[in-house]
Amino acid sequence: MLVTGGSAGIGFEIAKLLSEKNNHVIITGRDRNKLEQAASKLKNVTPIQSDVSNENDVNKLADQVKTEFPGLNLVINNAGSAFLFDLAESENAFDKAQAEMLTNYLSVIRLNEKLLPLLKKQQEAAIVNVSSIVAFVPGSLATYSASKAALHSYTQSLRIALENSSIKVFELMPPLVDTQFSAPIGGNKGISPKSVAEDLITALDKNSYEIRVGKTEDLYQLFLSSPAKALDYLRADRQPVLN
Q1: β-bridge pairing 25-29 and 125-130
Q2: Are 82 and 242 in contact (CB under 8 A)?
Q3: Roughly what angle, to the nearest 10 degrees, separates helices 107-119 and 55-68?
Q4: Where are the domains of the chain?
Q5: What is the CATH T-level fold of the domain 2-237, as seen in this structure?
């Protein structure tokens, strides 16, 4: 089992729960120190320093996994990036948007492409793409929201493309989560990353493919009845949303 961005936050809690169920878990991250610290707190884990936005890193990761872990049957695309800036005033909005789209959307496609041949060899396998509540309506983080909306659409397409294979495709959609990642935008008001991880494990067992955690389900139901009201729901709080 592979969890990208597994050294902290949601990724760490997912890796922890999976390892506690006697699964061998590979965790990746850009920061070697953080990765090794996380690994020291887990059992049955292999840390691999790797940046999902770096093509060379992804190629090396895929090659290592194919060689050392040929039984890989679960990939959780959790790594993410976000910038808090004024879309109307920023002088480098393009650069920031490009980085967010690469990490949050395009890198997922690249890693999945590299690992799909291996996953197809397994009797049962799964891919989990971690998007966000803002996959449905944008929050104040415009390009982050756009990247998660793109990931949501891609995940649905991938699920259809693989429906006749042994690979199941899940999407985890948390609301605001209390992590270091979301600390700059009031993450302490969010739910715990452990609860998000627990919801994922439950959904994997039940084959619930769209996992709308906590307030994400509320927003989704509102979005179905009135997209305009759903947009106002996030705008009213004036609070950017990150998972």
Answers
A1: unpaired
A2: yes
A3: 20
A4: 2-237
A5: Rossmann fold (3.40.50)
144 is catalytic: yes
From 144, 209, 220, 233, the catalytic residue:
144
- In the chain the beta strands, taken as DSSP E runs, fall at 2-3, 25-29, 45-49, 74-77, 125-130, 167-173, 210-212
pLDDT tens figures, 51-102: 999 999 999 999 999 999 999 999 999 999 888 877 788 788 899 999 999 9
The residue type found at 69 is: F
For the segment 219-238, what is each residue's pLDDT rounded down to a tens digit?
A: 999 999 999 999 988 776 54
Report field, pTM of the whole predicted structure over 0.85: yes
- Structure token pair of residue 241: 């949303």
pLDDT of residue 139: 82
Identify the CA nearest to 133 among candidates 83, 182, 92, 194: 182
| Nearest partner of 187 among 134, 129, 240, judged by Cα | 240
